[in-house]
Predict the 3D structure of the following.
Amino acid sequence: MVQGVNTVVGAVPALDPDAQLMLRVRDGDEHSFGVLLERHRNPVIYFVYRMVQDRAIAEELSQEVFLRVYRSRETYEPTARFTTWLFRIATHLALNWLRDGRNERGHQRLDAPRESDKNGDMPAREVSDRKPSVEQRMVYETRLQEVRSAIALLPEKQRAAVLMHKYEEMDYAQIANVLECSESAVKSLLFRAYETLRARLAHMVTGVPK
Amino acid sequence: MTCPLQKEKTDLLLDYSAGRLDAASAAALAQHMENCPACASFRTEQTAVWNALDMWEPAPVSMDFNRRLWQRIDAAAAAPWYRSLRDSLRFTDWKPVIPLTAAILVIAAGFLLDHPRANPGSNALVTGVSVTSVSLKEADQVEQTLDDIQLLQQLDAVTPPNGGNSKRM
């Protein structure tokens, strides 16, 4: 079951700037909420997108994340880093969506070729100085599809841990706080996840896609 | 330096591949990997994974994301409480609640079946019925007994005390 917005997620050594902004939101300053939204909107949406792999769903769930943050402003207590709290909400919503069986359409899309534009991935970016050739684009699309599939096939918690570790650059302690487990459990999750990814993606080191 | 793979300190190798290890530890690990093919292979493969994951960057967010969010915030503020409650439960995962609810119902049903007189009203009714049926049965038995006694008294009155002995003599 989805947990409500819980602001008590562990001790925080010092009040981080985001928590200060959130305290201002608690006091009725809507502008501070706008600042928080601008600062964390993209990381949250990208994280949720990589979890559910559907752009529309990712934006809908991310809206719910920020709506919950706003709704809980009156009871907010800065007992943890703001981003820990924020990503805990995002992770809960994404995991619940995945577990709720509403992801079948998304998995079907994963199997379809050349879906990156529809799903919201960037087009070929590695050749930015000139228009990529058809062959370059195909190679890029194939590799991107492999990456997306490899991530999607990870168990949900491993997936969340990898995405926070890789893309949000969170340390083990913060990931543990978000996932509500121990640091050693996070290390174990990451080790197993990267082990799987190495088996699936290591061939890319040669530059030859499958 | 002890091999991180043997010491189950693979997080060191992960951090090294991610470029998040402090300079001293990174230098020590780099020196170790010159003589440790297993760790060097781990680093090569992990770097490949890291680079592959770098490829995946989502497209920009919709331009109207903020506007839609503020609209929802305004709508939520103006909505009645039951609609706010419904919206807040919208993304709730109810699946774990279903077996819990079923278990509670089964326990409750079992308790009711095991204790059918738990209800005071039904208890009185059941007791009344059994008392009534027991009383009727006893009254029949008493009436039958009284009839038998009356019949014996009539027989005694009709029969003479020594009538049988005089005929034989």
Notes: Confidence is low (pLDDT under 50) at residues 163-169 of chain B.
